[in-house]
Every structure is written in C-alpha cells, then in structure tokens.
C-alpha cells in the first residue's frame, strides 16, 4: 500500500499519545457492535443449525473446529500485515476493518440458507475467517491510539459494545417468534425463518457499525517513516515473513506467556458453553433431544435469551471493571470474575426451571466482560508498539488452541463418560473457568 510523508506535528502510533475524549473512544470502538453481532449469532445458533441439518450430538464439536482453526491461521497473519500497512487515506488497521466487514456481511446472509450439513460447515469457516479479519486489528487499534492509563477504558468500551451487540443478536430469534409471530420451526432439514431473518439483520448491522468506526476515526502514522520502510524491506517476501512470524512467537514477552495459561482454561470453558448450551438445556430443562419438536426449538430460543443476559451483564460490567481494577488490580479483578463465572456454569446442572437458568448467566456475563477487557489491557502494556497487531494475533493462539482441544475431546467425553448428557460439558467448562481464575496469581502486570 502507498506510503506518505509523515507530518511531524501529528502524534505517532509509537510516540507520546494524546489523551482521547470519551466520544473518540466511543467512535473507535463502535465497530465492535457489528463484530459481536456476527459472533453472537454464530455462537447461539450454529449448533442448532448443525443439528437441524442432521448432525448427531457427538459430531457437533468436530464441526465447530472450523472456528478456532480459522482464528489460529488468520489472526497472526492479519496482525502481521496490518503492522506493516500504511495508506494515506485508509491508515493501518481500517483497510482490514472494511474487508472483513464486507466478507462477514455476505457470509451472514448465506449461512442460514445452507441446505446440507457440509454447506453449513463450510460457511462456518468462511464466516469465522471474515469476522477475524475485522476483529484482530480492533484489538491492536486500542494499543495504537491509547496511552497506558486509557487502555483499560478502551478495552472496556469494546466490551460494552460487544455486550450490547450480543444482547440484541442473541435475542433476535426469540423476538421474531414471540413478538412478530414468525415460525421457529420448519420441516425436517430446513432452518427456521426466525433464524434466517436474524442472520440477515446481523449482516446489515455488521457492515454499518464497522463503517462508522472507519469514517469517524483517524489513525496515527508510523513515527519514523524511514525505519518503517526499512523494516518492511527486511521482511519482504513469503519466506522472510514466515521467519519473522516464527521469531516473534519464540520471543514473545513473559507476561504474554503467563496470560496464555489463564486464557487456555478460560476459553476451554467458553467454547464448551457455546457448543453445548442448546443441547444441554434442551435435554436437562426442556426434556427434548429431537430437533423437530417445538420443545427443542423453544429451548434454542431460550438459549438466545440466556446469552442475551450474559452479554447484557457484560455490557454493564464493562463500566464497573475499570473502577474495581483501580482498587484491587487487574489480575485480582479477573480472578474474582472468572471464579464467579465458573460457579455459574457448574450450577446449571442442578437447574430445571428455565427462568432460573438466567441466574448463572449473570456470573458468566461478569466473567465474559473481564475476559474481553483485563487480559488485553495487561498485555498491551507489555508489547512493543511496532508489533502490537502481530502479538495481539499471536495471543489469539491461546484462545483457539483450547477451542481446538475442546472440539477434539468433548464429543468423546459427552458420548462415553456422560452418556450423551451434554449438560455435563458445561460442568467441565465451569471447573476449567475456576482454575483459570486462580491462575491469575501467576501473572505479572507491568503497569502495576
């Protein structure tokens, strides 16, 4: 991409950063509203789509493996490329925001029109890759534009929009069915209209929200254009690029490794929840495993409400966490939030009333808000400015590796050890989240 002469009066991405207003932080984070719309629709409905198209309960984790594998491949590459990009009009991260938004919106329109299981599996690959193209640079965006004392606020604002987007997106199928009277059932092998219309709205919201950030936010150019060009030249070419990526992984900061352990157990828990909440709740609280029954589809709609609750709580908690972190530190804040969330997941085994199932989602929402805020705020203070995007992408390894592990082993555990009672997968997730909470004691926060 074309490089431009740098104005010395403009603050740089690696120099002293000006304090941004709350409105500026709002604008630069607004795109996450759309990104989370896409993720929330995916997380709450893909297992339902797979089962509707004929997937057996033990096959669902393997079908879901597309999502973490895509993130493992896409995020570090996009981070590396965005670190090395500067365009006079588009900036550094915004070209990737736009490309990902276009592709994600198309995928959201196509996903619910899958007519066969293999089509839905392929569309999950496409959708997740497209969302990752937009999402990864948004993490680096905060490190680019905000000084250390504003980064927790920046990531908390992202968490707020993640919560709001997920609340609305998770509730859409329930809203279409219970308010507008659109059917949530269909003939065998056909995805209900309530799910289709939800994905269509998601495609529109995704694009418009990301476009808002692109239009309303300026990016900071590289501090030293000559050094920027020289570094690009030194790593130009596929082989040199791969070597540079490999070297960066081997030499990652110590804080990143400490957080990696926490992330591993945290995301094992969340992935278990996303895969198995629909089937677990349908069987444990609604008494059905047959996807053609109204009871099962009602359970699917209610899971959307449950996910709305945890995301709504996370949106509110996003504003509380920075204040708590100032009192007890980011590590302890994250530890407490994860332990509460883990206990919430475990408690779902004992709850048969659908309304009471909303209570554990409050704890999960607190854990979710902290997971989207505290690790990234801690990490940003430990990363070199010129590799912010790359390391944020590499950090995603410790999000997707536990998801791949969960996809590989959870089906076996549910089928063999738990007699196909998938609610026990949520118990495993809860225990994992509690372990993640206590592992925060091993993390060193450089800013503290």
Helices and strands in order:
Blueprint: H1 22-29, H2 31-52, H3 60-64, H4 66-83, H5 94-110, H6 117-145, H7 148-178, H8 193-216, H9 225-234, H10 238-250, H11 254-284, H12 294-328, H13 330-347, H14 358-371, H15 374-380, H16 388-395, H17 397-417, H18 423-439
Question: Any descriptors?
Answer:
single chain, 448 residues, mainly alpha, Growth Hormone, Chain: A, 73% helix, 0% strand, globular, disordered N terminus
Describe the structure.
It is a single chain. 73% of the residues lie in helices and 0% in strands. The protein has 448 residues and is mostly helical. The two termini are 38 Å apart.
- What's the average pLDDT? 82
Q: Can you tell me the CATH class?
A: Mainly Alpha
Q: H/E element string?
A: HHHHHHHHHHHHHHHHHH
- How many H/I helical runs? 18
Radius of gyration: 21 Å
Termini distance?
Answer: 38 Å
Biggest sheet overview: none
In total, the number of domains comes to 1
CATH superfamily: MFS general substrate transporter like domains
Percent range for helical residues? over 70%
State the gist of this model.
With 448 residues, the protein is mainly α. The chain contains 18 helices and no strands.
């Amino acid at each position: 991409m074309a490089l431009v002469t740098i104005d010395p009066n403009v603050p740089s991405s690696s120099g002293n950063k000006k304090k941004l207003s709350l409105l500026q932080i709002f604008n630069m984070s607004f795109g996450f509203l759309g990104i989370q719309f896409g993720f929330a629709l995916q997380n709450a409905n893909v297992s339902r789509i797979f089962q509707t198209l004929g997937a057996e309960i033990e096959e669902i984790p393997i079908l879901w493996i597309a999502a973490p594998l895509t993130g493992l491949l896409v995020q570090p590459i996009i981070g590396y490329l965005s670190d090395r990009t500067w365009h006079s009009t588009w900036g550094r991260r915004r070209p990737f925001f736009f490309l990902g938004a276009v592709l994600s919106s198309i995928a959201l329109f196509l996903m619910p029109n899958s007519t066969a299981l293999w089509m839905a599996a392929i569309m999950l690959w496409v959708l997740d890759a497209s969302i990752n193209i937009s999402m990864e640079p948004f993490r680096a965006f905060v490190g680019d534009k905000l000084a250390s004392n504003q980064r927790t606020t920046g990531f908390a604002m992202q968490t707020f929009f993640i919560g709001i987007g997920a609340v609305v997106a998770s509730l859409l199928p329930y809203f279409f069915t219970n308010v507008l009277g659109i059917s949530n059932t269909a003939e065998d092998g056909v995805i209900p209209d309530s799910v289709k219309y939800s994905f269509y709205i998601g495609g529109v919201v995704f694009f418009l929200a990301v476009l808002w950030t692109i239009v309303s936010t300026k990016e900071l150019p590289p501090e030293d254009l000559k050094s920027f060009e020289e570094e690009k030249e030194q790593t130009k070419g596929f082989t040199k690029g791969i070597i540079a990526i490999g070297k960066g992984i081997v030499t990652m900061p110590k804080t990143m490794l400490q957080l990696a352990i926490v992330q591993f157990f945290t995301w094992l828990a969340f992935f278990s929840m996303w895969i198995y909440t629909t089937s677990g709740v349908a069987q444990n609280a609604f008494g059905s495993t047959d996807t053609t029954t109204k009871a099962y589809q009602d359970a699917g709609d209610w899971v959307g409400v449950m996910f709305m609750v945890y995301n709504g709580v996370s949106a509110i908690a996003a504003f509380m966490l920075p204040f708590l972190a100032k009192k007890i530190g980011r590590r302890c804040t994250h530890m407490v939030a994860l332990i509460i969330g883990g206990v919430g997941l475990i408690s779902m085994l004992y709850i048969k009333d659908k309304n009471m199932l909303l209570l554990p989602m409050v704890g999960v929402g607190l854990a979710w808000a902290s997971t989207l805020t505290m690790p990234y705020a801690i990490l940003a203070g430990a990363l070199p400015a010129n590799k912010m995007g790359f390391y944020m992408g590499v950090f995603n390894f410790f999000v997707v590796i536990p998801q791949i592990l969960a996809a590989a082993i959870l089906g076996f555990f549910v089928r063999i050890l738990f007699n196909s009672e998938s609610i026990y997968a949520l118990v495993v997730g809860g225990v994992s989240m509690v372990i993640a909470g206590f592992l925060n004691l091993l993390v060193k926060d450089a800013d503290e």
